[in-house]
Amino acid sequence: MDITFKQIEIENFKNHKKLSLNFGEITNIFGKNGAGKSSIADAVSWVLFGLDQLGGKLEPNPINDFEAESKVSLTLIVDGQETTLTRNQKKTAKYYIDEVPKKATEFNQFVADLFDKDLFLSMFNPIYFFSQNWKEQREQVLKYVDEPLNSEVFAEMPKIQAELLKENLKSHSLSDLESLHKERFKKRDSEYERASERLLTLQEQLEKDSDSKQIDSAAIQKEIETLVNERDGLDEKRHQAFRSMQNRTSIQSEIDYLSDRIFKQKEKALSIREEKLQENCQTCGQSLNEDSIKKVKDNHLNRFQEAIEEGKRMTVELQKLKEKLAAIPEIEVPDTQARSKELDDQVYQLMAKRDAAERLIALKTDIDIAAERKEMLLSERNESQSILEAIKAFQAKQALVMVRKVDSLFTTISVQLFDELKNGNRKDIFEIKMDGKPYSKLSTAERIKCGLEMVEVLSKQSGIIVPTFVDNAESILRYTAPTGQLITAKVRVGELKIEVKDEIKEVAS
After folding, report:
1. N or C end: fewer C-beta atoms under 10 angstroms in the chain?
2. What is the count of structural domains for the chain?
3. What is the pTM for the complete model shown?
4. pLDDT by residue (tens digit) across 376-417?
5. Coiled-coil intervals in this record (predicted)?
């Protein structure tokens, strides 16, 4: 986009009662201090934005005439299309585009569609860019510089670090990767410290249990089994003796019980045999006939025979019990209590030694596990540290590449985008230097040269050409003129004088 100023008409604006100016390729404005040279540039920024040429508030009314209506009309040509913008202000502002009244929002939108305010003022006044906050300056320049590609940055890094980051950036962004490993490094570092303390504690415990190192657990276990077998053997002998004694006692009880029954059966049989037979009816007392007497005798004989048979049967059973009792040996219950206690004591002592040896084995296992965990944590901690160092190296090289890209835009200017902190990190800054001197230390002439170079860079990168106003131009003898129209203001004795040159300029002097 090519923007040129054709004409400006000023009425009751600051120290100008009435002024009409036709711009040329070069427009030189001469006059003493206070003649209104800078006010012409303020009139341009005021009609466009309602501000002075440095973006500050502006009171347009002439001195000592606050009732006058200020008016500025600027005719400009944008890519061959002529437009006149007018702003009037007395108590309230009025806006016109090609003499057509417009609302403030319509007017401001029209101007905003033509160009960005900060970009325009930065190219119109070489001082404006440097009057902005450093963050605004930084943002304005960096919008024209592509962020370095990862491949560009990797090419600047040591191969090992570059390969490490390439692999990890496949699954995470750089910022996520940094957050992830900052957290993991912090966590693993703390866990590694605790793991080291645990390993040391276990190793110290192992030293304290050094007496158990020579214990043969297998041999102790065999000895325990031998003693347990002997103790179980004693217990089995006691149990056998008790079982034998219980069996004999049980059979003897049966024998005694059956012997008593046999004795009573004998008495019963004798009682039946001694019974006197009744030959008379017990009811009526009459003598029984022969058949009845025979029945009585037969009944008596049968009962006697049954008693004898029952006695014989019990006698046979008694004999069997006696034989069964005789078959069970009489075993004396051995006194094994003292030996069993002795064996138990020996077993408990051996088990204590065995348990100590097993604890030692478990302790050694715990030590091995603790050592492995310590190494694992150290490995992960170191991996995170290496990745964080690679990220820091990447960011440093990324900053370096970015600075190179920005510096490549300029000829005599250098730009500092970052400041190195004591902890190795960087913070964003923006400082312009010329010949190694910061902008704040430059002379008026150097600041103008610096500003003109910034104008050319912004114009080239944005593709927008606007007129440039150089105030205090008398302070600089030689400089490269900007691509667009050049408007200079120089202090010279006398009233305001304007010279217009319609020529292609290369170098102004």
Report:
1. C
2. 2
3. 0.63
4. 999 999 999 999 999 989 988 988 898 888 988 998 899 988
5. 192-237
